[in-house]
Amino acid sequence: MSPADDANDLTDDLANDLPDKVALVTGSAKRVGASLVRALHARGFRVIVHYRSAAAEARTLVDELNAARPDSAKACCADFMQNDEVEKLAEESVACFGRVDLLVHNASAFFPTPVAEATETQWEELMTSNAKAPLFLSKALAGELARRKGCIINLVDIYAERPMRNYSIYCMAKSALRSMTLSLARELAPDVRVNAIAPGAILWPENENLARQEKVLAQTPLERAGSVEDLIGALLFLACEAPFITGQILTVDGGRSLSW
Ligand SMILES: NC(=O)c1ccc[n+]([C@@H]2O[C@H](COP(=O)([O-])OP(=O)(O)OC[C@H]3O[C@@H](n4cnc5c(N)ncnc54)[C@H](OP(=O)(O)O)[C@@H]3O)[C@@H](O)[C@H]2O)c1
Q1: Mean of the pLDDT values across residues 31-59?
Q2: Which residue from 6, 171, 172, 202 has the least number of CB within 10 angstroms?
Q3: Ligand 1 atom having least distance to the Cα of 226
Q4: CA 158 to CA 174: how far, in whole Å?
Q5: Ligand 1 pocket, Cβ-based, cut-off 6 angstroms
Q6: Predicted pLDDT of residue 10
Q7: Residue range 165-180: average pLDDT?
Q8: pLDDT digit string (tens) for 95-152?
Q9: Which CATH number applies to 3-253?
Q10: Cα separation, 128 vs 259, whole angstroms
Q11: Residue 11: pLDDT over 60
């Protein structure tokens, strides 16, 4: 069999197995995560909606998806700040449908920490949600993902490389997640692919002011904010159509990181 046949077989496997495949997306009851879950579900995945406090939104989303396709969505609660909850989420996720093929680290705390006022509590929250929990959830699911020849996709940020003023801890945490992408791509190969998406401005934070939005758009060559559809395209590509890609960070920012 030629290398081309091997590659075709692998692509076929990814497509043919899809009805059985299960995706866990952290922090996915609302905003970007909910859109990623809907897109994966529409693509044929069964989905696990992880949430911390957004229980009502998680329930509504799961009901919507199960109405479209029975027994295709479940919700799991975990607060990554609580000891043992990451481990428990891993166990519950495998128990949901008996397998996990795709792990998307989307959950994230995001708030400013001007260095003069930064606290250890802020450090714990930002580093735990953006870096520590992804590492230990990946560790807990590594065996399962390897059995399934699965993959991990990390939501990082363009600010991981060129930090945003007054957000040092968030940027450090996303840098750690970026670095984890490269480390685990080596360590979990050949069975598990590990990639990341680095979004620019996609969904503005709920309290973002207009002047800052205008400034960001002025720095963006494609002259618009991204949409969740832009992230979905990247996610589906990395999850379903990229069997020979691992250790890559796909930037989805309208070119902003080229020019500011
Ligand atoms: N929005 C953008 O334009 C943009 C730009 C660059 C990068 N990103 C990245 O893309 C991802 C999605 O963005 P987003 O704006 O949709 O995120 P988000 O709304 O800020 O956060 C997503 C979820 O993370 C969960 N979360 C936070 N702390 C947690 C903890 N300690 N334990 C468990 N869950 C926790 C929350 O769940 P509950 O609500 O259930 O508490 C929240 O709904 C994030 O990783 C973000 O950094 C987004």
Answers
A1: 98
A2: 6
A3: 3
A4: 9
A5: 27, 29-33, 51-54, 79-81, 106-110, 129, 155, 157, 199, 201-203
A6: 45
A7: 98
A8: 999 999 999 999 999 999 999 999 999 999 999 999 999 999 999 999 999 999 999 9
A9: 3.40.50.720
A10: 31
A11: no
Rounded Cα–Cα distance for residues 205 and 32 (Å): 11
Told to judge if 167 belongs to the known catalytic residues of this protein, a careful annotator would answer no
Closest CA to 161 of 33, 254, 246, 251: 251
Task: Name the pLDDT band for 62 (thresholds 50, 70, 90).
Answer: very high
Question: In angstroms, how far is CA 185 from the centroid of its own chain?
Answer: 15
For a pocket test of ligand 1, which of 52, 121, 137, 181 has the largest count of ligand atoms closer than 8 A to its C-beta? 52
* Phi and psi, residue 84, nearest 5°: 80, -10
Q: Where are the domains of the chain?
A: 3-253
User: Of 158, 162, 164, 160, nearest to 113 (Cα)?
Assistant: 164
Q: What is the CA radius of gyration of the chain?
A: 18
Cβ atoms of residues 174 and 197 within 8 Å:
no
User: Residue 242 is which amino acid?
Assistant: A
Give the Å distance between the CA of 213 and the centre of ligand 1.
19
pLDDT of residue 241: 97
